[in-house]
Design goal:
Elements: H1 2-5, H2 8-17, H3 24-41, H4 45-50, E1 53-55, E2 62-64, H5 66-82, H6 87-102, H7 115-131
Antiparallel strand pairs: 1-2
């Protein structure tokens, strides 16, 4: 765990978000989740952040890639699902990972937790939209 904690991007995240002031068990929980996601993605934390940016050929300026951020959000969702997280726990785990990216300059957003009832309603609405025949 100390290897991941020594990463430049992880230190930036902890410093920027104030996680260094949290109880050790909470710090460990965040680091463990990031380490598991990093292994799942096959990239170090530094590589996860770098993969969200591109450079302009002409100037060398760095900019955020919309496609890479979308792919990262999809990877986070896949990871959270494979871990078996559901509902509020799934949203919270995804948000921990997005927080890491955000505090390293990656603008990324996930879904908001709206409670069990809202989740069930959203799922039902999605099923109705995708199974209903298109009107002519």
């Amino acid at each position: 765990m100390s290897e991941i904690a020594s990463s430049e991007t992880v230190r930036r995240w902890f410093d920027s978000a104030g996680h260094g002031e949290e109880p050790p068990e909470e710090q460990h929980r965040r680091l463990a989740l990031l380490a598991e996601f990093s292994a799942f993605a096959g990239r170090s934390p530094d590589e996860l952040v770098a993969g969200c940016f591109l450079r302009k050929k002409a100037t060398g300026d760095k900019f955020a890639s919309v496609k890479a951020r979308q792919a990262m959000n999809e990877s986070i969702a896949e990871f959270v699902a494979k871990k078996g997280f559901e509902g509020r726990e799934a949203v919270a785990a995804g948000n921990v990972l997005r927080s890491f990216l955000i505090h390293n300059g990656v603008f990324i957003q996930g879904g908001a937790w709206r409670g069990e009832r809202a989740a069930a309603t959203n799922e039902q609405n999605h099923k109705e939209r995708t199974t209903s025949p298109c009107p002519n």
